[in-house]
Fold this protein.
Amino acid sequence: MTALRLAINGANGRMGRALQSLLRDDARFELVARIGSSNDWKDAPPLDVVIDFSTRDGFDAALAHCRATRIALVAGTTGLDASQCEQLQQAAHEIPLLYAANFSLGIAVLMRLLREAASALPDWDLEIIEAHHARKVDAPSGTALALGRTAATARGQRFETVASFARHGHTGARPANAIGFSSIRAGEIVGEHTALLATKDERIELTHRAYDNTIFARGALQAAAWLVGKPPRMYSIEDVLGPR
C-alpha cells in the first residue's frame, strides 16, 4: 500500500508534536510537510491530506491551500468564528472535509449512544457533567456542548432554548425539558464527560474518561486515513466509526 502524503498544520504545537510522535510507527502515512506558519504553504509538496491543529489564522491558510489543490482536510482547530464556519461549509462542496472538536473515537461512540438514549427517553432529565484540568479557560467544554446539541437534535429541540448553564441561589424546580451543564476544573484531569439521564426510579450514566492527550492525535490519524478518497462533503468523527 502506498503511504498517504500528509502535512501537519500547527506542527510545533502540542497536538502537532503528538501526531509526529505517532507517525514514527505508522506506515499508512509519509509526513512530507511540517507547517509552522502560514508562509510555509508556498513551499508545500504534493499532498493527499492535511491535519490541522493550529490557530484561527493558521486554519484559514490550511483551508485555502486544500481548496486550491483539492485535497482532503482533517481540522481540529477550535474557536472558529461564524465566517470561518461558513467557509467550512462552502469548502465541503469542493473537498472531503472532517471537522471535530474532539477526535477521540470513544467520544464518537458516546455521541452515538447519547443520541439513541435521548431519543428513546425524551422525558428523562438530562445533565451533562464535564471535568478538565485547572488551566482550561473555557466552560463548558466544546465536547460537552457538542453532546448537548446532539441530544437536543435527537429530541427535536432547539438547543439554545433548552440549554441551562448556570444555577445559583433560589432557582426553582428544574424545567422538565432542560439540558443542564456542570463544569469541574481541577488538577491535571485530561478530560471527562458524563451524560446523566434520570427519571423517578431509574438513572443511566454514559461516561468517557481520557487519560492521555495522545488519544486525540490517534483519532485524527484514523480520520485522515479514512477521509482520503471520499467524495466532497462535511464528515464527522462519528462517520469514521462506520454505519449507525
Summary: The domain at 105-210 is CATH 3.30.360.10 (Dihydrodipicolinate Reductase; domain 2). The first strand starts at residue 4 and ends at 9. The chain has eight helices and eleven strands.
